[in-house]
Every structure is written in structure tokens, then in C-alpha cells.
From TrEMBL:
Native source species: Rubrobacter tropicus
Cross-referenced PANTHER family: QUINONE OXIDOREDUCTASE PIG3, QUINONE OXIDOREDUCTASE PIG3-RELATED
Keyword Iron-sulfur in record: no
Name the record gives this protein: Zinc-binding dehydrogenase
GO molecular function: NADPH binding; oxidoreductase activity, acting on NAD(P)H
UniProt entry keywords in alphabetical sequence: NADP, Oxidoreductase
Domain of life: Bacteria
InterPro entries: ADH-like_N, ER, GroES-like_sf, NAD(P)-bd_dom_sf
Entry annotated with the keyword NADP: yes
Length: 322
């Protein structure tokens, strides 16, 4: 099979396509013929040498979408459509950047859909993070307000879609006025240009602050996001678009506004119910939901795809088809 291999951290050119043996699945594992995979900041962090616990050489990719090629334990049937994500994919064992990937049964979810593979490949990790952040990280309730910090990221855009399905009032940020229309098209109620003082803009709209907030940029903007949130509101830290995720000399009383709740979310396949995945795909097929995709690349365009992700030029998900 062909796979995209990273021998050691480096620039985009460090990603090389080469021939590897097709993995042989053992009991408890599934061999998947990959049809498409989405790109994630986690893979960028690995390529830049910012991720811990990664061994090299490594086939990157924390997610994959395709069909079952072989499943010795019988948990899935050959030809069944599946997604796989997390659980060490692309970090402690080879992931989705290949024509085949072999993953634990626990990381696999079956679905049925006639959507294009380029669309399906965008969904798993993006939907898992958005759904989990709303349901687990924030316990978001119908009709509440939400601030999405990092709104034109794939997770930010997907979260806006799911939040509107909950009749939430959505405030979403972008650093570029040129990207505002993409958020408005999703149904975002208030697009905020991130000038560093988003809290001030939020409180001009909602004087008491938002009920919930999703922090996707990272620790540089987290204090301002906390200031934009009402007393007893919830801020969920779930992303690091800035590549910064630690707070130096963290002093909770001085850092977190009184009464604001700070949580986090970093789930895996077990946190995305199969019914949620299936319902979302059916909503997309019916035209009742959209999959925010910036661009679909060919397998031999992985260098261009990673360069676009690193440059931050995108609005939504980047996908590679095999």
C-alpha cells in the first residue's frame, strides 16, 4: 500500500509517500481500506515536534474514513462503512494517512451513507469534538448563547452548525473580516472580528456575558474568553489553534473570573454515539446540515494540504482522498 510517512519532525517536505506492507489485523483490531481522511492540528503538532509520546517513523493521522477490509473478531463485516479516530492513531501506532489503516475495534464506528467520500472524510473527528464539547464540556442547553473562539476552524464551524440545531444564539470569532461571510452562511448570529478584546464586543451584545464559550485558539485568548462569560457560565477549552496550550504560573483565583466555570474536552471515538454520527450524515444528505469543508486534496497533495493548514488560510476542514 501507499502511505504518507514522517521519519522525524520537520517541515512539510518531511511528509513522504512510500510503499509499506498492508497491516495484518489481530483479534480486537480492524483493517480499514481508507477512502478519505481529515487533517487535524494534532498532526501538525506531531510534524512540528510539539507532541509527546510519538515514535518515528510514523504514518500520521488521528482519523480515517473507509470500508472494512478485514476484522478477525467479527465485530464488523467486510465492506461495512466505518470511521475510526483517536486511541493512539498516528501517534503510538500508524494512523489514517495511508491506503489502509489497522486500528482497535474500540476506535471504530459504523455508518451508512451515499455521500461522497470527500465529504464523509471530513466528519468523524470534527463532529466528535464539536458534539462532545457541547454535550460534555459545556452541557449546553437549548436556547442558550455560545461564544466560539476560533470560529472558522473546522470544529468552530461544525459547533456553530450543531449549536443552531439547538436554537442557541451563536457568537463566533475570526481574525479576518474576509472570513466573516463564511460564518454568516452557517447561521452565526454575531460575527466578531478578533482584535484581542472579544469580551468587550460580547458584552456590548449580551451585557451579562455568554452562557457558554468554546475556546479553540488556546491559552493566549483564554483569559479574554473567560471575561466574556457570565457568572455560572461555562468555558470549555478544546483546541490549540495557536499551538499554545499551557498557562505559566497558573493562579486560579487571579486567572478565572469569580463564578465562571472552566472545563475541558478531549474525547475519542467512544464519546461519539453511532446514532449521533448517523443522524448528522442523514441531515447532511437531506440538506438540513452542512459539512464545513475548505478543500479536498488528492493523496499526492499532502504537502500542499499541510502547508495550507499550517498557514491558517482555511475556512473549515481539509480532507485528503486516497
Amino acid at each position: 500500500m501507499q502511505a504518507i510517512v514522517l521519519d522525524a519532525p520537520g517541515p512539510v517536505e518531511a511528509l513522504t509517500i512510500r510503499e509499506l506492507p498492508i497491516p495484518t489485523p489481530q483479534n480486537g483490531w480492524v483493517l480499514i481500506r481508507v477512502k478519505a481522511f481529515g487533517l487535524n492540528r494534532s498532526e501538525l503538532h506531531t510534524r512540528l515536534g510539539l507532541a509527546d509520546g510519538v515514535t518515528f517513523p510514523r504514518v500520521l493521522g488521528i482519523e480515517a474514513t473507509g470500508v472494512v477490509a478485514e476484522c478477525p473478531g467479527g465485530e464488523f463485516s467486510a465492506g461495512q462503512q466505518v470511521v475510526a479516530m483517536m486511541g493512539g492513531m498516528g501517534r503510538t501506532f500508524d494512523g489514517g494517512y495511508g491506503e489502509y489503516t489497522c486500528v482497535p475495534v474500540s476506535q471504530v464506528i459504523a455508518f451508512q451513507s451515499e455521500l461522497d467520500w470527500g465529504v464523509l472524510g471530513a466528519v468523524p473527528e470534527m463532529l466528535q469534538t464539536s458534539h462532545g464539547s457541547l454535550s460534555v464540556g459545556m452541557n449546553a442547553q437549548r436556547g442558550q448563547s455560545i461564544l466560539i473562539r476560533g470560529g472558522t476552524s473546522s470544529v468552530g464551524m461544525c459547533t456553530a452548525i450543531l449549536a443552531k440545531q439547538r436554537d442557541m444564539t451563536v457568537l463566533s470569532t475570526t481574525r479576518s473580516a474576509g472570513k466573516a461571510a463564511a460564518l454568516t452562511a452557517l447561521g452565526v448570529d454575531h460575527v466578531l472580528i478578533d482584535d484581542g478584546d472579544v469580551a468587550g464586543q460580547v458584552r456590548e451584545i449580551l451585557s451579562g456575558g455568554v452562557d457558554t464559550a468554546l475556546e479553540l485558539v488556546g491559552t493566549p485568548t483564554l483569559p479574554d474568553t473567560l471575561q466574556a462569560t457570565r457568572v455560572h457560565g461555562v468555558v470549555c477549552f478544546a483546541g490549540m489553534l495557536s499551538n499554545e496550550w499551557t498557562v505559566k504560573d497558573f493562579y486560579p483565583i487571579g486567572y478565572i473570573p469569580h463564578g465562571v466555570r472552566l472545563t475541558s474536552y478531549a474525547g475519542d471515538a467512544g464519546d461519539l454515539p453511532a446514532g449521533v454520527l448517523q443522524d448528522f450524515l442523514e441531515a447532511v444528505a437531506a440538506g438540513d446540515a452542512t459539512v464545513p469543508i475548505d478543500h479536498v486534496y488528492g493523496f499526492d497533495q499532502i504537502v500542499q494540504a499541510h502547508a495550507a493548514m499550517e498557514a491558517g488560510r482555511t475556512k473549515g476542514k481539509l480532507v485528503v482522498t486516497t
